[in-house]
Amino acid sequence: MAPRHERLEALAEWRRQSTWVDGVLLAIRLGVAATILVGFGGSLVAGTYSIGNIASFVVFGLTIGCIYALVALGYTMVYGILRMINFAHGDVMMVGSFGGLFAADALSGAGVLEAAPLLSLPLVVAAGMVVGAGVALGVERIAYRPFLHVRSLAPLICAIGMSFVLQYAARGLFGSRNRAYPGFGWMERTFEVGGLTIPMLQVVAFVAAGVMLAGLLAVVRLTRLGRAMRAVAEDRDAAALVGIDVGRVIVATFAIGGAMAGVAGVLYALVFKQITVFLGFSLGIKGFAAAILGGIGNLPGALVGGLVLGLAEALGPALLLEGFALPAPYQFKDVIGYAMLVMVLIFRPQGLLGERLADKRA
Amino acid sequence: MSKVLEVSDLTVAYGAIRAVRNVSFRVEPGELVTIVGANGAGKTTVLNALCGLRDIRGGRIRLGTTDITHLPPQDRVALGLSQVPEGRRLFPRMTVAENLEIGAYTRREAAAVAADLEWVLELFPRLRERGRQLAGTLSGGEQQMVAMGRAVMARPDVLVLDEPTMGLAPQIVDLVLDALRAINANGVTVLLVEQNAYRALEIADRAFVLESGEIVMTGTGAELLDHPDIRNAYLGYDA
């Protein structure tokens, strides 16, 4: 540690240079730190939650975090290549989730789902992927391709339009009530590890999401298509000049993002057992938040953002708010999630793993 | 075998402004041809039209026996036309090795690609120890070497370069132009756009002078070097 007089000088220097905005920001930091300390201390003192409870919150947080990460990947991949947020992405995920539902219903009707859930699950996930990828391709064709060589906000507006089209079309076709996913046989059970009761489906969803994420990162890092995607993201014209078909790379990006969203929609349904046509907005905005949190345009960032958001939501209410003796701390999970997002945007605008945009070009 | 590049009546417009007007020229197989011209004369526009990055208003572009006028950029690369763009335009977050390898994106024969990579590394030995470094962290001269290497990795018949010596120290300029001559001697037709007219004319077989979007003069490199108008306008001394 620096000697005392140096530290005082640094403090004086900060006071000379700081404006009232810096003061406000500092106050926010201190306020958050105080809230966390008081809440955390209070939670410990109250002792409502055992280590077992906490551990099951962690498991749940990781599971939902992986699902957020899958959704976030679609946002971040499209942003990386087009510098544009695909606002229809949440609804692509919702439609993919319904695709999975219909596949699961069909398998359930045939009795396969109950008898062989481990065989059926990949089929249901695949249905979600195919539907998600197909819808994403439609969104690309209608909302993005016509504007490929135009610098305008039109694709953004069109994507918002597509979001409504998908949501209300789904509402008209499937109805707006909750739709329950059929049971997956033995996967519906729970199991115990060290006195901890864990729902099997959470683990299944976690593993499936992890496999998908690892597969996607491998594709982007190791394959010809992945290299082309990175090249287009870095410099579209230069990519065309080395012989990359930029249009096809964009199509592939939407398809992969849509497939990942479809997987996320199905896994979400596995964990929560039901879906509605409004799922696209709520889960879509979470995925978007996760992408921003991790640093938009950055693939590992989407993963980190999703997990951090999932863990914060799952653990935050119990660990931080219990001490305030609130009547329903769990209802604050979104407050915690979005407060964290706003804080990251204030103190680290480029996201957890993101780079400052100014450094983008060499 | 190298291919002829033939441009006839090329016209490119930005809105109502015609930046390139009825430009016609031919680059014979194996030649090293340079386009000389002031800032804004339309040199980069011509190159981008050749490579398909810019829509054209009129005219035809032929590479060998193929009419490439309406082909997308990636098909032109596959047919043997590569560009080293202005400002190098590397992929800064990829390694040097990845930048070079992606130059061969349109090619499938792994052995031939590996041989060409070796050739590029012999041409620019300095890149050999930089393979795992991110391209964005290289010096300007090294980045130019990677940009040229990347274009060569496509094994082009015709290589077009836009201002490859811009912003480089004089001894690096020598290195870049020597490498360019070596590439040309290896059978690749070269079309070079340069602001450094003197250096470009020195190494060129033939040259065109582009002024306000039109070709106003053609000749061998030596002829233009001695031409009083050129000396005045582009070489910076009186005849």
UniProtKB/TrEMBL annotation, chain A:
<feature type="transmembrane region" description="Helical">
    <location>
        <begin position="94"/>
        <end position="113"/>
    </location>
</feature>
<dbReference type="InterPro" id="IPR001851">
    <property type="entry name" value="ABC_transp_permease"/>
</dbReference>
<dbReference type="GO" id="GO:0042941">
    <property type="term" value="P:D-alanine transmembrane transport"/>
</dbReference>
<protein>
    <submittedName>
        <fullName>Branched-chain amino acid ABC transporter permease</fullName>
    </submittedName>
</protein>
<keyword id="KW-1003">Cell membrane</keyword>
<dbReference type="GO" id="GO:0005304">
    <property type="term" value="F:L-valine transmembrane transporter activity"/>
</dbReference>
<dbReference type="GO" id="GO:0015190">
    <property type="term" value="F:L-leucine transmembrane transporter activity"/>
</dbReference>
<dbReference type="Pfam" id="PF02653">
    <property type="entry name" value="BPD_transp_2"/>
</dbReference>
<keyword id="KW-1133">Transmembrane helix</keyword>
<feature type="transmembrane region" description="Helical">
    <location>
        <begin position="277"/>
        <end position="296"/>
    </location>
</feature>
<keyword id="KW-0029">Amino-acid transport</keyword>
<feature type="transmembrane region" description="Helical">
    <location>
        <begin position="249"/>
        <end position="271"/>
    </location>
</feature>
<feature type="transmembrane region" description="Helical">
    <location>
        <begin position="54"/>
        <end position="82"/>
    </location>
</feature>
<dbReference type="GO" id="GO:0015808">
    <property type="term" value="P:L-alanine transport"/>
</dbReference>
<feature type="transmembrane region" description="Helical">
    <location>
        <begin position="335"/>
        <end position="353"/>
    </location>
</feature>
<dbReference type="InterPro" id="IPR052157">
    <property type="entry name" value="BCAA_transport_permease"/>
</dbReference>
<feature type="transmembrane region" description="Helical">
    <location>
        <begin position="196"/>
        <end position="220"/>
    </location>
</feature>
<keyword id="KW-0812">Transmembrane</keyword>
<keyword id="KW-0813">Transport</keyword>
<keyword id="KW-0997">Cell inner membrane</keyword>
<feature type="transmembrane region" description="Helical">
    <location>
        <begin position="151"/>
        <end position="170"/>
    </location>
</feature>
<dbReference type="GO" id="GO:0015192">
    <property type="term" value="F:L-phenylalanine transmembrane transporter activity"/>
</dbReference>
Automatic annotation (TrEMBL), chain B:
<dbReference type="InterPro" id="IPR017871">
    <property type="entry name" value="ABC_transporter-like_CS"/>
</dbReference>
<feature type="domain" description="ABC transporter">
    <location>
        <begin position="5"/>
        <end position="237"/>
    </location>
</feature>
<dbReference type="GO" id="GO:0016887">
    <property type="term" value="F:ATP hydrolysis activity"/>
</dbReference>
<dbReference type="GO" id="GO:0015807">
    <property type="term" value="P:L-amino acid transport"/>
</dbReference>
<keyword id="KW-0813">Transport</keyword>
<dbReference type="InterPro" id="IPR030660">
    <property type="entry name" value="ABC_branched_ATPase_LivF/BraG"/>
</dbReference>
<keyword id="KW-0067">ATP-binding</keyword>
<comment type="similarity">
    <text>Belongs to the ABC transporter superfamily.</text>
</comment>
<dbReference type="GO" id="GO:0005524">
    <property type="term" value="F:ATP binding"/>
</dbReference>
<keyword id="KW-0029">Amino-acid transport</keyword>
<dbReference type="InterPro" id="IPR003439">
    <property type="entry name" value="ABC_transporter-like_ATP-bd"/>
</dbReference>
<dbReference type="GO" id="GO:0015658">
    <property type="term" value="F:branched-chain amino acid transmembrane transporter activity"/>
</dbReference>
<dbReference type="InterPro" id="IPR052156">
    <property type="entry name" value="BCAA_Transport_ATP-bd_LivF"/>
</dbReference>
<dbReference type="InterPro" id="IPR027417">
    <property type="entry name" value="P-loop_NTPase"/>
</dbReference>
<protein>
    <submittedName>
        <fullName>ABC transporter ATP-binding protein</fullName>
    </submittedName>
</protein>
<dbReference type="Pfam" id="PF00005">
    <property type="entry name" value="ABC_tran"/>
</dbReference>
<dbReference type="InterPro" id="IPR003593">
    <property type="entry name" value="AAA+_ATPase"/>
</dbReference>
<keyword id="KW-0547">Nucleotide-binding</keyword>
